Amino acid sequence: MRDTGQSENSTPISLRTLRFTGQALLRLLLVGAISAAACSDEPPADASAPVKTEPKLTLILEGPVDAEFAPIAGRLTTLYYECYPKLLTRFEHPTRKAPRKIRLTFDPKLDIPAHCSGDRVTVSIKWLKAHPDDIGLLTHELTHAVQAYPDSNPGWLTEGIADYARKQYGPEKQPGWNFPDRLSSRQSYTNSYGVTARFLVWIEEKHPGTVDTLHRHMQDREFRLEDFQTATGKTVDELWEACVEELSQ
Ligand SMILES: [Zn+2]
Q1: By residue range, what is the domain housing residue 163?
Q2: Distance (Å) from CA 160 to ligand 1 centroid
Q3: Which of 48, 67, 108, 169 has the highest count of CB atoms within 10 angstroms of its CB?
Q4: 218 CA → ligand 1 middle, Å
Q5: 134: CA distance to ligand 1 center in Å?
Q6: What is the CA(144)–ligand 1 centre distance, in A?
Q7: Are 140 and 118 members of one domain?
Q8: CA of 209 relative to ligand 1 center, distance in Å
Q9: Are 143 and 161 members of one domain?
Q10: How many angstroms does the Cα of residue 40 sit away from the middle of ligand 1?
């Protein structure tokens, strides 16, 4: 899934001299993150219940890293271990397992912020250096990895659910991210990304479980627009109208 954004015109930075140092640092960051994920001192809520083992996750980092990008790479690594287990718990298909090993590629030439294909998430070094607070794009792309829709149509719903997940699973604060508090009748639920995600947040508040139902139907290639009505008793247009009426005030 390709995610477009504004193009940047900053000069490519030569990373050759810093590459070794950056990769060594990144290795340290990665090991630290894995250790943090593996060590939990929290007791189970019910001591008599069987202890559920977290899925073992791996993150492979690829691409050049310099001193400026290393902290961003570290934050992406931490975010991966925080949000990916939650995405798997909520959105993984019961029989078709999502990848446990994600390849996160840092691309110095990518002219869109990020994209995901299978188990590989590629992010733009240039974009993240210019927008270091936009690491939530990783949550969006990891959602695509878990969605694994056999047919991503309608694209507005695929992207809307990915941004819905970004809103739910973080990071908690995402300054600069385009997630609207308000909606207007000039917009549409098919606007995709943040607008659709805002609509889905509203639906989920009124009719809990709807997003999960729509998502599972997408995974099973069974989605129909009428699913909104089956899940909520209202057509998607009626829902949108009620949502806008409430959120435009
Ligand atoms: Zn996307």
Answers
A1: 156-247
A2: 8
A3: 169
A4: 15
A5: 14
A6: 7
A7: yes
A8: 22
A9: no
A10: 32
pLDDT in single tens digits along all 249 residues of the chain: 556 544 333 333 333 333 434 444 444 444 434 433 333 455 455 555 555 556 699 999 999 999 999 999 999 999 999 999 999 999 999 999 999 999 999 999 999 999 999 999 999 999 999 999 999 999 999 999 999 999 999 999 999 999 999 999 999 999 989 899 999 999 999 999 999 999 999 999 999 999 999 999 999 999 999 999 999 999 999 999 999 999 997
The SS3 call for residue 140 is helix
Cα(140) to ligand 1 centroid in Å equals: 6
193 & 109 share domain = no
* Cα 1 to middle of ligand 1, angstroms: 5
208: CA distance to ligand 1 center in Å?
23
Tell me the one-letter amino acid at 121: V
pTM for the predicted model, two decimal places: 0.81
Q: How far is the CA of 73 from the centre of ligand 1 (A)?
A: 20
Identity of residue 4: T
Residues 66 and 185 in one domain: no
Q: Given the structure tokens 């991503």, which residue do they identify?
A: 152
43 alpha carbon to ligand 1 midpoint, in Å? Answer: 36
Q: How far is the CA of 55 from the centre of ligand 1 (A)?
A: 24
The rounded radius of gyration (Å) of the Cα atoms in the chain is: 19
Same domain for 68 and 162, yes or no, is no
Q: How far is the CA of 53 from the centre of ligand 1 (A)?
A: 30
Q: Which of 148, 164, 194 finishes a domain?
A: 148
Tell me how many degrees the CA angle 165-234-153 measures, rounded to the nearest 5. Answer: 45
Domain boundary, last residue among 100, 118, 148: 148
- Residue 31 and residue 139 in one domain: yes
Q: Where are the beta strands (DSSP E) in 19-132?
A: 58-62, 101-107, 114-117, 120-124
Distance CA 80, CA 74 (A): 10
